[in-house]
């Protein structure tokens, strides 16, 4: 589904990624883990064409997307839930959702307003509310719903549950588990490792712009050194 090979990226003269490698298979949930400032968001931004890779390749399906602009990458079937949500504050919930609606891949059961409202009943209740009047949890639900309305084959979430109350976090995890069961491929960045290990297929731990460890949830649970060295505060 997605293959990142040897990516190096810069912000001006400052290098942020040093040979980043990762893969997401069809129907897999894959995580990027690590402390703040280690390159997780830069990796996502490079995949999406927001930050340009100076070397290496990003392949989506059979298409080299390394040099494509962001809008073309999105049209190929990658949906992004960005850090900070970035919903449209002066559009209603419904308008936020329909603004991105598309079914370019001709999905047999495409995401619609009705399906989004069924997954997130809170959004149905706030359908006419402006985006800037929603709670943080409602905004995150809306950001997920907006990405799903593009009917992606790969969903990327950056800081999926950052700043959310425990009950809202569990709702987001339940949503991702359901999406996995429906066959959607997912790449997720989050700090709640214990929650991620319950349903993710593979984890990549990032330190200073490159992968220092990768493995299954079972492997990660057993490797105390990884938790202490790379994931602890």
Uncertain runs:
none
Largest beta sheet, briefly?
6 strands, mixed
What is the straight-line distance between the termini? Answer: 32 Å
How many distinct beta strands?
Answer: 10
**What's the assembly state of these chains?**
single chain
Helix content: 25-40%
Strand order of the largest sheet: 6-7-8-3-9-10
Tally of helical segments: 10
Instruction: Kindly provide the radius of gyration, computed on alpha-carbon positions and rounded to a whole number of angstroms.
Output: 17 Å
| CATH class value of the largest domain | Alpha Beta
Could you spell the SSE succession in H and E letters? EEEHEEHEHHHHEHEHEEHH
Your description of this structure?
- The protein is an alpha/beta fold.
- It is built from 10 helices and 10 strands.
- It folds into 2 domains: 1-77 and 154-165 and 184-233, Rossmann fold; 87-152, no CATH class.
- β4 and β5 form a beta hairpin.
- The protein is globular.
Structural features:
2 domains; six-stranded mixed β-sheet; 233 residues; alpha/beta
Give me a quick take on this structure.
The protein has about 230 residues and is of the alpha/beta class. The protein has helices spanning about 40-45, 70-75, 95-100, 115-120, 120-125, 135-150, 165-180, 195, 215-220, 225-230, and strands at about 1-10, 15-25, 30-35, 55-60, 65, 80, 155-160, 185-190, 200-205, 210-215.
């Amino acid at each position: 589904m997605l293959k990142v090979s040897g990516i190096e990226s810069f912000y001006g003269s400052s290098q942020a990624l040093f040979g980043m490698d990762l893969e997401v298979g069809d129907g897999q949930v894959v995580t990027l883990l690590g402390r703040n400032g280690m390159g997780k968001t830069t990796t996502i931004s490079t995949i999406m064409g927001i930050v340009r890779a100076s070397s290496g390749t990003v392949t989506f399906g059979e298409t080299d997307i390394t040099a494509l602009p962001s809008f073309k990458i999105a049209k190929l079937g990658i949906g992004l839930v960005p850090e900070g949500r970035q919903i449209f504050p002066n559009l209603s919930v419904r308008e936020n959702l329909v603004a991105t609606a598309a079914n370019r891949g001709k999905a047999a059961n495409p995401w619609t307003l009705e399906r989004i409202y069924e997954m997130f009943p809170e959004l149905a209740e706030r359908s006419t509310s402006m985006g800037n009047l929603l709670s943080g949890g409602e905004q995150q639900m809306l950001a997920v719903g907006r990405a799903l309305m593009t009917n992606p084959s790969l969903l990327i979430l950056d800081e999926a549950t950052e700043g959310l109350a425990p009950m809202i976090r569990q709702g987001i995890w339940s949503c991702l588990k359901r999406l996995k069961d429906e066959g959607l491929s997912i790449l997720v960045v989050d700090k709640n490792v214990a929650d991620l290990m319950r349903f993710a297929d593979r984890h990549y731990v990032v330190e200073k712009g490159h992968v220092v460890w990768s493995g299954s949830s079972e492997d990660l649970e057993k490797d105390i050194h990884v938790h202490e060295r790379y994931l602890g505060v």
